[in-house]
Amino acid sequence: MRAEDLRAVLLVKAVEEADRAGTLLTPADRASAARAARREHRESNDPHTLLAARSHRLLERLARRERAVAHALALARGSRWIGFALIVLAAASGFALSTLDGTQRINILGFSVLGLVLWNLAAYALLIMRPSLAGRWLLQAGRLRKAEGPLAEALASFLREWYQAARPLYLARASRVLHLAALALALALIGGLYLRGLVLEYQAVWASTFLDASQVHKLVSVVYGPASLLTGVPIPGVEELDAIRARGENAARWIHLMAATVVVFVVIPRAVLAAVASAALAKRRRRLEPPTSLLPYFRSVFSEDGGRATVRVMPYAYEPLPRASERLRALLPELLGGELVIELEASTPYGEEDALLAQLDVRGGGGADVLVLLFSLAATPEDENHGTLVAGARDLLARHRPRAELVAMVDEAPYAARLAGAGGARQRLTERRSLWQAFARAHGVEARLVDLSAA
How do residues 377-391 score in pLDDT, each as one tens digit? Predict the structure, then answer.
């Protein structure tokens, strides 16, 4: 799965497992998201695809209601500024290494170059033997103090499971940052060496308590040998090195050798490793291995959605023509997804919404998986009539059938027929559509505009 999809699925999964009472995500929210996922991916039976589509919908609602959820997601994504700050700090350290002794003398055996080379060689050996990730900062940072109850339990569970699943992603990200930091340090060191040589006259010297000139020659031949071959700058002999120890010499050739040595042993390998890590990171973002726990979770959340759903259509203040009823039966499976048992009720006259709600209450919310309130676009929505019906049906379903979905469907055909040939018909049709959409949203549902006269 894509990292973004897996993150959403694991977070919603953790919330559903902790929130058995349905206070964070209502049963209706969950069932509606499952049906929407099936509609969006009609041709797919892939569990991970369906779970991702469902989870993104639920996560949007959850993030709007609970600020701690957005904070947990930010922790799971990781902080980019930490990596950037590490690279900047490495660059500053590299420049500081070039001026470590604070004098106008460059020690050809000094720590700045030799120490950097040895440290990187040790790092390469460690990478070959066993790559590792230092620290589980995510779990430590995941102590979300503001979250309480089921949400706190869910977020802690999510962070643990996400860290285990996303460990390869974090390894690739950490590897890239560390390689880029080492590269920045090396380039800053080279820049510092040349800056010193350009604006100041530096002398190259060496000093050792234990090594003589012949031993130093062997050492610098090994360390600076590849740089000498690359640049053509010769390494001085034993006698010349002995003279340098006594009086020093202009540091130009040694700056070239040091810079080339850093390029050979640090810059080139780290640039290659950073590119490899970037490719691995891109691959991990596209593909993370989902945990085996997702398949049982998929069966549980899509079990009720997978069967035949009962859809009860209840027209209000609108009597659909036979042709409209046929069109509605053909359209509903496309809109709602899955196999449907469609029951079309008789129309309820305008002003009798209370009687309809009383009937729904007696029948336990209508006994449907999806309750469709069918309106006409020709009517102007009114709070005391249409609004009372929508709000009452929503509350009844929450009480009797919490997993059922409420749909407000508006037929455009009667109003379009009325406006046929009239001036400004298109504008008036657009305005009435916007009015119904705003009205439905204000009452907690989405208006689905359809044309039941269409072939």
Answer: 999 999 999 999 999
